[in-house]
Amino acid sequence: MSRILCAFAVVIAACGCGGGQSEAIKRGIGSACTMDSDCTTKGQVCLLEFKGGYCGVGGCMHDADCPAGSACVTADNQHNDCFLVCDLKTDCNPNRTADVESNCSSSLGFVDGTMSRKVCIPPSAGTGITDAGAD
Q1: What pLDDT, on the 0 to 100 scale, is given for residue 20?
Q2: Is 23 left (phi over 0), alpha (psi -120 to 50) or beta?
Q3: How far apart are CA 61 and CA 80, in angstroms?
Q4: CA 133, CA 135: separation in Å to the nearest integer?
Q5: Considering the entire predicted model, what is its pTM?
Q6: DSSP 20-51
Q7: b/e 24-56 (16+ beta carbons within 10 angstroms → b)
Q8: Ordered alpha helix ranges (H), the chain
Q9: Structure confidence by residue, pLDDT tens digits, 24-60
């Protein structure tokens, strides 16, 4: 019996099942992009107001419209989009290069209230959206 359990543990470790990633990261929320088709899930848009683009789910009305691990926020452009939730900057960049990395910030408006939350925000592409308040 112990051999079976040991073999099962090895298989779980080898496959990387789960990977500890949120549903939002698995769906590519927060990934760099140059056009909507670069984003991996139907309904995602490439937000070009950010340097390197930003894959988000457009038109959310509440956090419930977003994949787990993301939140509905209102950016300076007055559009609601799902952004990747973070605690630290290192949470923000699994699918971004160093030249377009995101910061973990509480500077955007959370549709369902802040509750001490932060989201990943890349640098502005010069359109007025900032990541002021980055941690």
Answers
A1: 62
A2: alpha
A3: 7
A4: 6
A5: 0.76
A6: T--HHHHTTTT---SSGGGSSSTTEEE-TTBT
A7: bbebbbbbbbeeeeebeeeebbbbebbbbbbbb
A8: 2-15, 23-26
A9: 999 999 999 999 999 987 789 999 989 999 999 989 9
